[in-house]
Amino acid sequence: MVSGQPNELISRDAERFGSFAAAGGWTFGLLVARSVTKDDPAGAVAEGKVSAKAFAEHAGCAVGRVDRHWKAWQAAAADGLVPDAATLAPGAEVDLPEADVWPGYYAAPGSSGDKGQRVVAEAEAIGASHKKALEITGHRPAMRAAILGDRLTAEAAREALLSRPEERDATLARVLADPDARRAAKAGQRRADHLEYVSRVLDEGTAKTPGGQVVSLALSPAELSDERLARVRSDEPDEPGGDAVEDAYEFVRELVDRAVRSDPDAFVREQRAKFTRTLTATSRNILAIDPDDLVAVADETLLERLVELQARVNDLAATLRAVGV
Residues 173, 167: contact at Cβ < 8 Å? Predict the structure, then answer.
């Protein structure tokens, strides 16, 4: 039967629940502090206190857990927040500090060593739960599964690794030594560059052409609502293996090409920049050839290629002269 008035047992449980909600770990700390002695277990039995080991056996938990609560209590006592455990008799009741103060004194499992202290310090620095952080260090297979199964978790792990100089150097060394990793790194950088390009177009309404011109893109409502752009505006534009970024990039490039072709002057400048870029690269490559090195290895095929190239250059130059350039 459901009633608005709880019976005595429920009232007692509710009161205990409320006291724990208000005091948190201090409730357990008090139970240990008033029941356990660390100085003289044999003599303490007469006072009613027991050793941490005996208390743990009665509680059905590890003695380390009891020790951590006792040490937390004593650390708080040293700061004047609670009475020293030695002054408390079994069953004693004292006013307890606020629940959110307890984590600053309680050392979670694994936090007592140098590694644990570093984990706690890093967690506090970024405002994360040090308890969760320490828990993760004890479940590495689960952590690996989360990294492999979730892209955002993998990104967080990668960001953390690359923020450590020694890990960053080791990771870069592995990438440079692995052809597949190099290709993946290049693909990742290309994707990031393309995403930045598309995002800038959406934010600023302008785009840079391959020839270096900045053109205005007055995107229509239909273009803005295009699925290819909508997907990159989402929080997760690509699932693993997806190509949303590349689709959006190609779509924007089409819009840029259309804008350039619609402006005769801009189109001429773009074509001139394209030819200049090609001729500059070709010239640079030819000028880099050492005649002595060429003579040492030249054969009939190389000579034919040079003759063909020279003829093509002469034809292009003649064409420009014919039109009065």
Answer: no
